[in-house]
Amino acid sequence: MAAPLSVEVEFGGGAELLFDGVKKHQVTLPGQEEPWDIRNLLVWIKKNLLKERPELFIQGDSVRPGILVLINDADWELLGELDYQLQDQDSILFISTLHGSRIGAGSTW
User: Fold this and answer.
1) Which of 2, 21, 47, 69 is most buried per CB count within 10 Å?
2) Which among 53, 64, 75 has a CA at the least distance from the CA of 98?
3) Mind listing the pLDDT tens digit for each residue in 45-76?
């Protein structure tokens, strides 16, 4: 069984508006049978942090196009994207490249 993990999840570029305007979240992910990866983290975020309009953040089992994901300041595309296995104290940053005004204005992108 994988041990609980403590990670920092941060939202920027307007994406934080979907999370009650809170940019940084220090979260403890519970222990589970499978190791935590970004795919599982997105499910956890949707259930536990996302406050409104999930369609502006999640598309299928990934983030919506237009959201840049950095893991410990590195582009997630270099690290395996959804399959990246989280490590204790990782920092995951989600940045809307559409600059938030569209999220705040209620657009569907």
Assistant:
1) 69
2) 64
3) 999 999 999 999 999 999 999 999 999 999 99
Of 99, 100, 94, 82, nearest to 40 by C-alpha is 82
Name the pTM for this structure: 0.87
Q: Label each residue of the chain as H, E or C.
A: CECCEEEEEEEECCHHHHHCCCCEEEEEECCECCCCEHHHHHHHHHHHCCCCCHHHCEECCEECCCEEEEECCEEHHHCCHHHCECCCCCEEEEEECCCCHHHHCCCCC
| 102: its two tokens | 């569209």
